[in-house]
What does this fold into?
Amino acid sequence: NEIIVAGNYVPSEYIRDTIWHFVNTHQNIPVLFDGPIRSHEQDEVIRPILGKFVVIELELEKDLAIERLLHRRIDPETGETFPENFQGNVNPKTGNTLTTREDDNREAIEKRISWSLSESLPIIEKWKNDNHIVHKINANQPIEKVFEEISNFILKF
It folds into this structure.
């Protein structure tokens, strides 16, 4: 938690071990991971576990990304995310009170974005070259439209 709150990424070995355990206990089940590989080091240790995979790349302007992250709220038990325009302060599915992540502050967000631009984007190009499907979605649209496009793409698999 201290690592995340500071705006840093979790060490690769933690992510590798978590993904390895999940993949090996859920064989033959399609899985959607949210950004498990974010650096060249992570790519080296995690990609062999995943094998062939499909990537959804969300293209989003920096200022809009910052605003969305600054104002999102999270269900602390499920991790479900709610945008700024969500009415109420409770997850209607669980009854849990929504909170703000400690690392959703401007300094930590700017650090994550800068790191992502320098580390993650080159990896996406590498995946394209390795013939992984990379589907780009314009995330500058309203969140509901982005969700619809992601959902429609996932349903193809």
Observations:
- The mean pLDDT is 90.
